[in-house]
Specification:
alpha/beta, TIM Barrel, 7-stranded parallel β-sheet, two-stranded antiparallel sheet, 11 helices, 9 strands
């Protein structure tokens, strides 16, 4: 029995085959960056892949699908608009760009965005695609702590996130939340609270990120000025707290992030993602940890 609900198994059960995510560079920007005040950890490249830039959206999708079929034996695909804020454009632009990514064998459209950039116009556009593919919205929360959100310069509140989740769910869209569990301004209670809020909201999935320091970010300057990042041991403890307090219904899309190569000054405690995952799995076994074991199964959404 798996100790947490893994994405790979969920997708296999849902689609009956191996499903691979392809990352689409949609040419979007972000309101924070436009105002010259990006999040302190924001990768200047937008957490995307520079190799995709300059290619049309359709060409990106087709090239990645061909490669994934050969390399991984994947049969179906999720078109994932990742970099920056992928709802930050007029409706006609969104409609055109999303549509271009839905080629043969794409079964899901996934759009990463900010909680304060999910207007009804955006939801209306996303709803148009539900008769063609599954549609999911990935919302960056990072922390439920208001003071931490201010330090991160997120530019949104927990209330904005809750509102966005409820409206996405009302429109029948799958919601995946992004969180960072090793923020030095949060404590273990903040991590617990974040997990329980996500559980009460009934989000469909969670992506857990590790905090890494990218060149040219404000976080780099903060570290140079003496900010201490969390130890690996504290990260492991927080992951365990988070999972135990997260509803077992929620799919874990990621436990550990991959820092961008060549841009990262500090990240993942100089360990590979696979090594960290192996250590986490061993710790889960040692503790007999099970996702949701400390969460009271209640939802604030109407049944």
């Amino acid at each position: 029995m798996e100790r947490y609900r893994k994405l790979s198994r969920y997708l296999k059960e849902k689609y009956g085959c191996r499903v691979h995510r392809i990352t689409i560079e949609g040419g979007f920007t972000c309101p924070n960056r436009e105002r010259g005040n990006p999040c302190i950890f924001c990768d200047p490249t937008g957490s995307g892949f520079n190799t995709l830039r300059g290619m049309s959206i359709k060409a990106q999708a087709l090239a990645q699908i061909e490669r994934a079929k050969k390399k991984y034996g994947a049969k179906k695909f999720i078109a994932y608009f990742q970099a920056y804020t992928n709802t930050y454009a007029p409706s006609d632009v969104l409609r055109e760009r999303y549509s271009e990514a839905i080629v043969d064998d794409v079964v899901q459209l996934s759009v990463s965005t900010r909680p304060d950039c999910v207007s009804q116009d955006v939801l209306d556009v996303l709803n148009e695609f539900k008769n063609r593919v599954e549609v999911s919205v990935e919302l960056g929360l990072q922390s439920a702590n208001y003071r931490t959100l201010m330090i991160l310069k997120r530019g949104h509140t927990l209330a904005d996130f809750i509102d966005a989740v409820l409206r996405c769910k009302k429109n029948g869209l799958e919601v995946i939340a992004h969180v960072i569990v090793d923020l030095p301004w949060d404590d273990q209670l903040d991590v617990l609270e974040t997990a329980r809020i996500l559980s009460a909201l009934g989000v469909d999935g969670v992506k857990i990120h590790t905090l890494y320091v990218v060149k040219g970010t404000e976080l780099e300057r903060m570290v140079q000025n003496g900010l201490n990042l969390l130890s690996f041991e504290e990260f492991v403890e927080r992951i365990c707290i988070f999972l135990e307090n997260l509803s077992s219904d929620i799919v874990i899309h990621r436990l550990v992030s991959d820092p961008p190569k060549g841009m990262t000054l500090l990240g993942n405690w100089n360990m590979s993602k696979m090594k960290i995952l192996n250590i986490l799995e061993q710790e889960f076994e040692k503790r007999d940890l099970h996702q949701g074991s400390k969460f009271p199964h209640q939802s604030i959404l109407p049944s």
